[in-house]
């Protein structure tokens, strides 16, 4: 399996938000509640479709990630994979791409994940170590 990556565009917003809604709502809602207006506005202001890399396999968009370059790390704000492509190696493929970017910049990758989200264990499986936590979030890091 080989992924293609392209820059997110304004036209990708509705699809990305729908993917966010379908994959994140089951974990956000029990943790903090889900207010559609707040979530939609936060998605646009905190993430924004133009800040995503869209992941395609065989010319079909199957996910996206929002990665921000900081002085001391690459911060993975969001990784979204279509449910039909989860648990099939797609997330690992994307993370391998992100790890290569981190290594070429000699930076660790950091992120936070809702503890109840199975993605938290996915990141641990990839060698991420928790460096901070609160009641609902795990903050994880993987060295470069």
Task: Please name the defining characteristics of this protein.
31% strand, seven-stranded mixed β-sheet, alpha+beta
Give the helix/strand layout.
Blueprint (H helix, E strand, L loop, with lengths): L3 E4 L5 H20 L3 H12 L4 E6 L2 E10 L4 E8 L8 H15 L4 E6 L4 H7 L3 E5 L3 E6 L2
Parallel strand pairs: 4-5
Antiparallel strand pairs: 1-2, 2-3, 3-4, 5-7, 6-7
Walk me through what this model shows.
The model has no long low-confidence stretch (mean pLDDT 94). The longest helix is centred in the first third of the chain and has 20 residues, at 13-32. Strand 4 (74-81), helix 3 and strand 5 form a beta-alpha-beta unit. This protein has a 7-stranded mixed sheet, sandwiched between helices. The protein has helices at residues 13-32, 36-47, 90-104, 119-125; strands at 4-7, 52-57, 60-69, 74-81, 109-114, 129-133, 137-142. With 144 residues, the protein is of the alpha+beta class. The chain is globular and about 35 Å long.
Task: Report the mean per-residue pLDDT as an integer.
Answer: 94
Low-confidence stretches: none
List the quaternary state of the chains.
Answer: single chain
**Structural class by SSE content:** alpha+beta
Count helical runs. 4
Radius of gyration: 15 Å
The helical percent reads: 25-40%
For the largest beta-sheet, the strand count, sense and barrel status come to: 7 strands, mixed
Element pattern in H and E: EHHEEEHEHEE
β-strand percent reads 25-35%
Main sheet strand line-up: 1-2-3-4-5-7-6
């Amino acid at each position: 399996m080989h992924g293609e990556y392209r820059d997110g565009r304004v036209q990708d917003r509705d699809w990305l938000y729908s993917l966010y809604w379908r994959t994140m709502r089951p974990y956000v809602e029990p943790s903090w509640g889900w207010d559609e207006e707040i979530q939609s506005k936060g998605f646009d202001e905190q993430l924004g479709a133009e800040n995503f890399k869209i992941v395609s396999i065989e010319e079909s968009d199957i996910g996206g990630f929002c990665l921000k370059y900081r002085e001391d790390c690459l911060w993975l704000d969001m990784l979204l994979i279509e449910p039909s492509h989860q648990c099939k190696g797609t997330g690992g493929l994307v993370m391998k791409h992100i790890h290569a970017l981190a290594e070429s910049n000699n930076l660790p990758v950091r992120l936070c994940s809702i503890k109840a989200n199975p993605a938290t264990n996915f990141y641990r499986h990839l060698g991420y170590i928790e460096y901070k936590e609160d009641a609902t979030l795990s903050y994880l890091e993987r060295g470069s």
